[in-house]
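Preliminary data (for renewal application), S-adenosylmethionine complex.
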Amino acid sequence: MKLQSALNFSHTLLKQTINPGDTVIDATAGKGNDTLFLANLVGNHGHVYSFDIQKQATDMTSALINKNGCTNQTTVITDGHENVDQYVADEINGAIFNLGYLPTGNHEIITQPQTTISAVQKILNRLAKNGIIILVVYYGHPGGTTEKDQLTKFVENLDQHQFQVLKYQFINQINEPPILIAIQKR
Ligand SMILES: C[S@@+](CC[C@H](N)C(=O)[O-])C[C@H]1O[C@@H](n2cnc3c(N)ncnc32)[C@H](O)[C@@H]1O
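Predicted structure:
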């Protein structure tokens, strides 16, 4: 077995945790790749709520979802993930965040520590037993290290009796490859 990149490992973890019928969140839709991946995992009887603040991103995501026939199980929302509680009332089985900027878009529009942490906290409040939140943390851009540090401090302080927190990181690579953080509810 080869060690997986943080991005590939995020999909491995989701595949092993998410079941047909589940309710899940793509907190940073971007081009929609994770939304489509989740839509296929939850199937017709589950639901994916997919957020992005940029209409360019939600348009790309909606197009990808339509093309792949997954519209029934997907709601694409042009709003910040920090407002997740205004859209999702159900128990949540899983969520993924890809932090940073949209590679094909404006590199100055980045996820921000305060709104990221607020969204994570709101999802934690609704997380089902064994439910999982995955954060793929890109931090090579301006502002990225601040977000990584604040987020790390937040997750390190989660109560170990309620949550297990994993950090997956290659520590001998240059160019700041992304770090994966996974939080699972006990
Ligand atoms: C690294 S990209 C996501 C890549 C995506 N997973 C994909 O497969 O293409 C980060 C995205 O987060 C979005 N974003 C930034 N702040 C946000 C917020 N508060 N709520 C939701 N999305 C946000 C950006 O607009 C950007 O599209």
